[in-house]
Specification:
single chain; alpha+beta; nine-stranded mixed β-sheet; eight-stranded mixed β-sheet; 55 strands
């Protein structure tokens, strides 16, 4: 009986009854009547009823009249909302009586506030609006209005419920695609406005004069028509615009596109690679012409479909299927573009035997992985991106392999996640170990090769507090455990120990590393590198023994006596030498004046030359778009640098229980308290590394891309917590956001990356790209060493050639790839360029305006020197003519081959020979060894200290060189310096280069440090974040302007702009070589110095890059201060406006990343720190109240398959 009584009591409660949509036009005064039940009559002393509306965060209270117990009316008033970004806005409301007692109503019951003219700026969009809105098109006003707002509405107001209503003046804004085969079948998409209200109104669609049949299922009223092309019967159709009519073909209902559609004949001429494994999985590139034509493409390989990946005008990429024939052989290639069938009997693809694995040396690693393996087998060169994999405890990990030749490759072992407390000393065996070689499934698991993982090495801290005092040159003992794994064979772990930035010589035993310390003094941090891990056991305090011994005292006394005698001798000789000294001083002064004049002249000439070059470059770029990367690639390169195919870009192929668990996990992440608890718990773990913090921040931003307004709320809270923690720990406030030591800092970088993309494309991208082009062009005007990366022109002292290089400029007439005689283009090169450098310059000229990823690479091309009609010589960096002196082998240059000015050369597809393979491996190995070290260096100042000796080739014992040999080598005799000036003289070239590039650096800085430059307004995100930092400073009573300035500099210039300036390849589709990288690093350092509030005291020992821009930095600093001041004076942005902007950003980019894949990657950290996170959820009162621990356990159980 109890439930019945409760039900009866509920029916007696006052309540608002559900009703159909409550439609409220904005700005119109009208009442709102609601049906109700059991409404009480207010008694004397009680307040009357009110309707309370919450519109965009603002509360509006309207008196209400109770007609009787079942009816109430919100009195006459008007409602409105800000902005025209939304055509309608659901608004929550409540009915209260006696001040604050709400009447029950259905939670989903809302009022729908709408504006007719918002997002409906054409007749078609207006008439397709919901008929209940009663919006119509006013002919006189040319706006979407309610009937009462349109003058002479009976004649001038169009509404969809009227019969035979049609919008005049249809307009086509875009057609896609713009090309297609004349065989037809192309599905053409036509977008525009006023394109009919129903598909039956569309008549007479003709594309380039050919009939195109509308597809009803793809039609979007008024906005889009999709039609299928019929075959063009003309032998060579000239192409033309799209024409169509709405209803009838009178003038006001007829339209024609401004874009034209062309008929093309797609063809293909070659494929790369030309062979791959029988099991398939090879990423096949098909090259030809007009390959982006039409709407659909199918690639058939021996009657099996090749899985399509992407295509451009010159290339189609697909993944090869397994061969239907189990034996190797030729496979015929056929393309279908719409109804066109394309073949080429001269081009095909060959299926070769699948690769095999014979041995793996060594067959062990450490739990963290990243140790080197040498793998032997067969047919390895048929694989493009080999990987090694391991699976342990249900978690799969992978790492990369590098091909050496067809039978050898080197790999870095994947680590495993060992969840128990300590790895046993005897090691553990993974559940699976094998290789990912395209689609070769037989090598995924190699049970015949047992692989063992031993514990990671660990080290004790230095001394008791992490600081150890030692004398210079004394040995250092680093104690640890598991330093030599108990594995059979002679293989050992490869340790490197750095004292500061200097490596030391090592002796390794089972429990300690013995390090011969370099001759350094002061405090030096000790870093141990092994297997991809970095340990820092502490800091060395290296001091000099200053106690004077008896022999030292005697020596000083004797020295003093000698000094006294010397002073007397000097006084005697002084008068005689004064006259000579004056003459010498005058001669030196003249030499210095001549040197200064020469520098000024060189700077002036170089600037004039570059102006000409940049003018030519600018002219060449007219009509060519700057090669901006698409939004997804740009954000991925910033968030996950170095990872091309990240899981967040792929669909997650997972069981239903995993998908359900991830959706539950997603709901938890959208709970602010859970997300903050999750992040703070991870940051509290000692094993949660800097790399993990960056990874979590990037994965969170990818997962929350569709909810940017929520991500911003979380980011602000994390930053507020970080400020609080910074002040609690009594750290200097200026250190805030200086280093990436929290998830919040990397999230802030990603936040700016998302929200400043448009600003980069419309404003800052152009001066940055021009600076990159100017640096590249200026560097390539002089010699660049292909081995060391040093150049004649440089901004970086560490990358400057410090000796005289004689060279001469040549102009070569180049026949581009696939070009014919008569299509030559003149290209400027210099005679000391290596053949690869020449090929790069020729490709730059032949493919101007083409993004770097869409053009052939130098390694794929041969350079032919054509002499007369029959003689053709292939030029190479190394061949049988290469000069070898002692143990040095010099790369071939144009001067080596005696190529003359005006010679005819051609770029042709590389012809593979046994000599080429052997020698290109040797050269590539030497270069890659240098480049890999270069990439790891973090700043220009560290480049020279890390520059390696050019290591001898293991097979021939020779070392490669190009323009300069390694300075420290024994061959570098003192006598060899006779032809050189003092190397510091060449530092004047830094001044010349700096003066040449000054305009481009100024343009970039001026654009970045301006609130309204090039017609582009300041991005909302910058003003919003700067105001937030000011608000936090106010809240904590921080009045020091330097602290506020530093916070803003660490927030935007350091976290975003420096990253973009140093890495323009994050923004553009370009290639950045080592000399360009070094120059950009100097510009980035200058940028950061300009944002600093501290005064730099310069002296003769200051770094050259600071001396170089010493006069400019005060000017730049004034720009920065003015920029920050102007931003603070701008009107603040309300949270509502910012939320609307963020919602729009989410709408534009919400589908860029696969949210489930991002959640799956994030779940790794839930799995790793499960107990700690569950405990933290238990401790928090809010989390206990909302049972967040229980919900997380549900997700964990679903993931493990136990529920």
């Amino acid at each position: 009986m109890a439930p019945t009584r409760r039900a009866r009591d509920a029916k007696g409660c006052p309540q608002i009854l559900p009703t159909s949509d409550i439609l409220v036009p904005a700005g119109i005064i009208r009442p709102i009547t609601l049906r109700a039940r059991n409404l009480p009559q207010p008694q004397s002393g009680q307040k009357n009823y009110e309707c309370v509306f919450n519109i965009q965060g603002k509360v509006q209270r309207i008196p209400a009249v109770r007609f009787n117990s079942s009816c109430i009316q919100c009195q006459n008033t008007s409602y409105g909302y800000e902005g025209n970004e939304m055509g309608d806005l659901p608004v929550d409301f409540s009915i209260v009586w006696d001040g604050d007692f709400p009447i029950d109503k259905p939670a989903s019951m809302k009022a729908l506030l709408y504006k007719c003219d918002a997002q409906r700026d054409s007749c078609g969009l207006c008439l397709k609006a919901d008929s209940r809105f009663e919006c119509g098109w006013c002919l006189t006003e040319k706006r979407c209005l309610l009937k009462q707002h349109c003058p002479s509405a009976e004649h001038n107001w169009m509404h969809q419920l009227r019969r035979n209503v049609r919008c005049s003046n249809p307009r086509i804004s875009k057609i896609h695609p713009l090309t297609g085969p004349k065989e037809g079948g192309t599905r053409v998409t036509i977008e525009g406005e006023n394109l009919g209200l129903q598909v039956r109104e569309i008549v007479g669609v003709r594309v380039a004069g050919v009939r195109c049949d509308p597809v009803p299922s793809e039609y979007i009223s008024a906005e889009r028509i999709v039609c299928d092309m019929e075959e063009s019967l003309l032998a060579s159709s000239p192409g033309g615009p799209v024409e169509l009519c709405i209803g009838d073909c009178s003038a006001e209902y007829r339209t024609q596109s401004s874009q034209t559609y062309s008929f093309v004949t797609p063809s293909f001429s070659r494929v790369r690679p030309e062979k791959g494994p029988i099991s398939g999985g090879t990423r096949l590139s098909i090259y030809g012409k007009h390959l982006d034509a039409g709407s659909t493409v199918t690639v058939m390989l021996a009657n099996e479909e090749c899985r399509f990946v992407k295509r451009t005008v010159h290339e189609i990429v697909c993944i090869t299927p397994p061969s239907a024939n189990p034996h190797p052989g030729h496979a015929f290639l056929k393309l279908f573009i719409d109804k066109a069938e394309i073949t080429n009997p001269d081009v095909g693809y060959t299926y070769s035997e699948d690769p095999t694995i014979a041995t793996i040396e060594p067959n062990w690693s450490i739990v963290n992985g990243s140790t080197s393996l040498t793998v032997t087998g067969t047919n390895l060169l048929t694989i493009q991106e080999p990987k090694v994999r391991a699976r342990y405890g249900g978690v799969e990990t992978t790492n990369v392999c590098t091909l050496v030749n067809d039978s050898v490759m080197t790999c870095l072992t994947p680590g495993i996640i060992y969840s128990k407390h300590q790895t046993p000393e005897t090691g553990v065996h993974p559940d699976e170990f094998g290789f990912i070689l395209d689609h070769v499934s037989s090598l995924l698991i190699l049970n015949s090769t047992p692989f063992t993982y031993y514990p990671n090495p660990s080290f004790e801290t230095l001394g008791t507090s992490g600081i150890l005092e030692v004398k210079p040159g004394s040995p250092i003992i680093l104690k640890g455990r598991n330093l030599i794994p108990p594995a059979p064979g002679n293989a050992r772990l490869n340790y490197s120990v750095m004292i500061g930035e200097t490596p030391c010589l090592l002796t390794v035993s089972e429990s300690q590393l013995l390090c011969d310390s370099p001759d350094l003094t002061g405090e030096q941090r000790v870093t141990i590198l092994v297997g991809g891990m970095e340990y820092s056991p502490g800091t060395l305090h290296i001091y000099s023994d200053s106690t004077l011994t008896l022999p030292a005292i005697i020596g000083i006394g004797a020295g003093g006596g000698v000094l006294l005698v010397a002073i007397i001798a000097v006084l005697i000789a002084y008068k005689r030498k004064t006259r000579d000294a004056d003459r010498t001083l005058k001669r030196l002064q003249m030499q210095m004046d001549n040197l200064e004049s020469r520098v000024a002249l060189e700077c002036k000439e170089a600037f004039a030359e570059l102006q000409t070059d940049i003018q030519e470059l600018t002219n060449d770029m007219d009509g060519v778009k700057i090669p901006f990367l698409e939004y997804r690639t740009y954000t991925m390169r910033v968030m996950f640098p170095g990872i091309e195919e990240h899981p967040v870009l792929k669909e997650l192929d997972s069981p239903a229980n995993v998908e359900k668990a991830l959706r539950l996990f997603s709901q938890l992440l959208h709970n602010k308290m859970f997300l903050l608890t999750f992040i703070h718990t991870l940051e509290a773990q000692r094993s949660f590394s800097m790399r993990d913090r960056g990874n979590v921040a990037s994965l969170l931003m990818a997962a929350l891309q569709g909810r940017m307004e929520y991500a911003t709320v979380v980011l602000k809270q994390l930053l507020a917590d970080l400020i609080e923690k910074n002040l609690e720990n009594r750290n200097h406030p200026k250190l805030l956001l200086r280093r990436t030591e929290s998830v919040a800092e990397k999230m802030l970088t990603n936040w700016f990356t998302f929200l400043l993309h448009r600003f980069l494309k419309e404003c800052a991208g152009e001066p940055l790209f021009m600076l990159y082009c100017a640096i590249k062009q200026q560097m390539e005007k002089g010699p660049i060493d292909a081995i060391t990366g040093e150049a004649r022109y440089s901004l970086s002292e560490d990358k400057l050639i410090r000796q005289q290089i004689d060279y001469k400029q040549l102009t070569l007439m180049c026949i581009p790839p696939e070009g014919e005689v008569g299509t030559e283009i003149p290209v400027k090169v210099i005679n000391c360029d290596t053949i690869t450098q020449v090929k790069d310059k020729l490709l730059d000229a032949a493919y101007k305006g083409i993004p770097y990823s869409q053009r052939p690479q130098a390694d794929d091309m041969d350079l032919e020197w054509r002499q007369g009609r029959l003689t053709r010589i292939i030029l190479q960096d190394e061949d049988v003519t290469t000069k070898i002196e002692s143990d040095w082998k010099r790369l071939n240059t144009l001067a080596h081959y005696q190529v003359t000015d005006g010679s005819l050369v051609a770029l042709v597809q590389k012809q593979v020979s046994a000599y080429n393979i052997a020698n290109s491996f040797t050269f590539t190995r030497s270069l890659s060894r240098y480049e890999s070290l270069l990439r790891t260096s973090s700043s220009p100042d560290s480049l020279r200290s890390r520059a390696p000796m050019i290591t001898p080739d293991q097979e021939t014992g020779t070392k490669l060189w190009h323009l300069v040999k390694n300075h420290e080598h024994a061959d570098q005799r003192e006598g060899d310096r006779g032809s050189k000036m003092v190397s510091e003289i060449y530092l004047t070239r830094l001044l010349a280069t700096k003066g040449t590039l000054q305009k481009f650096v100024d343009d970039l800085f001026e654009t970045v440090f301006s609130t309204a430059h090039r017609g582009s307004a300041l991005p909302l995100a910058i003003k919003y974040m700067f105001d937030f930092l000011d608000e936090q400073a106010d809240r904590r009573q921080i009045s020091d302007p330097d602290v506020r300035h530093t916070w803003k500099s660490n927030c935007l210039p350091l976290r975003f702009w420096v990253n973009v300036i140093k890495n323009p390849q994050f923004v553009f589709d370009i290639h950045k070589n080592s000399i360009t990288d070094a120059c950009l690093s100097v510009v980035a350092q200058t940028f950061m110095d300009s944002c600093s509030t501290s005064e730099h005291r310069l002296g003769k020992d200051s770094p050259s890059n600071k001396l170089l821009y010493a006069k400019d930095i005060p000017n730049y600093k004034s720009w920065v201060e003015r920029y920050y001041r102007d931003i603070s004076k701008m009107p603040s942005i309300s949270d509502q406006d910012m939320d609307a902007y963020l919602v729009e950003q989410s709408r534009l980019h919400g589908s860029e990343f696969n949210t489930l894949s991002a959640l799956n990657e994030l779940y790794f950290y839930i799995n790793k720190y499960k107990e700690e996170i569950l405990t933290a959820l238990d401790r928090d009162g809010y989390c206990r109240k909302h049972k967040l621990r229980h919900k997380l356990e549900q997700a964990i159980n679903l993931m493990s398959g136990s529920s």
